[in-house]
Design goal:
This protein is an alpha+beta fold. The protein contains 3 helices and 5 strands, in the order E-E-E-E-E-H-H-H.
């Protein structure tokens, strides 16, 4: 079943970036929900499985950025203290 979302929901797709979910596909009980998401940076449309989707932070709701999303945005030097010399060189 396909459900159009009105209004779209701001989401973050791990590995793709921030975007807006414009629809949701439910294939049934044996499958993940699929979020039809337009990615802000590229304009691409991705059908992202539920485990790869996170809510964006929302200051007015008191929701902070998800740690997995924040880790994906950190510079490589912060993620790997052993390889910081290689990154900065």
């Amino acid at each position: 079943m396909f459900t159009q979302l009105n209004p779209p929901i701001p989401l973050h797709v791990l590995g793709k970036g921030d975007g807006y979910a414009i629809g949701m596909i439910d294939y049934g009980q044996e499958h993940n929900l699929m979020w039809v998401t337009a990615i802000d940076a590229t304009g691409e449309i991705w059908c992202a499985p539920n485990p790869k989707v996170r809510m964006q932070r929302n200051w007015s709701m008191g929701r902070k950025e998800n740690p997995l999303v924040a880790a994906g945005k950190r510079p490589a030097a912060e993620l790997c203290s052993d390889c910081s010399e290689a990154v900065s060189a």
